[in-house]
Amino acid sequence: MDLPLKQGATFSLLEGPETGRLLLMIHGATVPHWEFDRLVPHLHKANWQTLRMDLYGHGRSARPERDYTISLFTQQIWAALSYLRIKTGVSVLGHYLGAVIAVNLVQQHPEFFRHLVLVAPMLDFISKQWWSRLLQVPGVGEWMMSKVVISQLRKRRQRRYSAIGVESFIPRFEEQLAYPGFDRALLSMFRCGTLADQGMVYRNCGSLTKDVAKLLLWGEKDHVVSRQDVEKICALIGPHQMEIMPGTEHNLFITHPEQVAAKLLSFLEGTPTMSQTS
After folding, report:
1. Which of 94, 66, 45, 80 is nearest to 214 (CA)?
2. Are 58 and 176 in contact (CB under 8 A)?
3. Distance between CA atoms of residues 19 and 27, nearest Å
4. Mean pLDDT (the chain, rounded)
5. Listing from the earlier edge strand, what are the strands of the sheet with 48-53?
6. Residues 201-241 pLDDT 10s
7. How far apart are CA 41 and CA 264, in angstroms?
8. Which of 113, 204, 218, 234 is the most buried (most CB within 10 A)?
9. Where does residue 42 rank: exposed (0-12), middle (13-18), buried (19+ CB within 10 A)?
């Protein structure tokens, strides 16, 4: 379903049992709503409804001519919730960049949300990439994004999806790369600080979301989000539960959907597990 929002059309999927509680799911950088495809059936089976949408610049949503900031994405999701007339008591899950957006969203509307789930949350991508400085240079950045970054991103996804046995995801990612304006949106995310240090967003979380239950979920073999970054985020977000999933990497929704669903449902439905910590 395409939502005619002020900043541009937003593709959304509201699925699952109509009587179920709602989990809003916010995808990470570069991969749109379908990164959750293997997870949502397990949630629907447990009587949860899911709402997914493509962030601006991703998937089937619009690519407006503006800066792709955390604020833009937060406004987009809140406008979508308002358009769909979603009622309070929503739970929200964010993956990587989506976790930053989810935190910002809940901070702005804490009374609206019941649970906040951060999966492999991003802290600071740019500082670890020396080449990101070149993207700031006018002309050089545009050339580098279209000729180098997109090419490397394509190769990494092909290798990763082949390694975990989901070759069917490769053409879907190719489709994402082919959408006009995707490279421009990604370049904007580098230049606007969207992929830079988000410590301040997490730092405000503890005081502004005191009544929202929080879970941080991370795969111990995640090579994108380090344990050090996770520990920094844990120290900033206030009281929460922590789950470390052995043997899982960054794409844990794809590789271990049933196990992830079990962790989520245990938290969302209030059943504690032995490995939960505060």
Report:
1. 94
2. yes
3. 24
4. 93
5. 2-5, 8-15, 48-53, 21-26, 90-95, 113-119, 213-219, 241-245
6. 999 887 788 889 999 999 999 999 999 999 999 999 999 99
7. 13
8. 218
9. middle
Per the DSSP assignment, residues forming a β-bridge with 118 are 94, 216
- Torsion 55-59-65-67 (CA) sign: positive
Q: What CA–CA distance (Å, rounded) separates 94 from 23?
A: 10
How many structural domains are present in the chain? 1
Q: Which domain holds residue 113?
A: 2-126+196-268
With tokens 């495809």, the residue in question is: 37
Structure tokens at 231: 């520990």
Tokens 């492999």 locate to 120
Output the domain CATH number for residue 228. Answer: 3.40.50.1820
Q: Please name the residue that has the structure tokens 């991508």.
A: 125
Residue 33 lies in a domain: yes
Angle, vertex CA 108, rays to CA 232 and CA 11, nearest 5: 95
CB atoms within 10 A of CB 18: 6
pTM of the model: 0.94
Tell which residue, 71, 77, 124, 100, has the closest CA to residue 216.
100
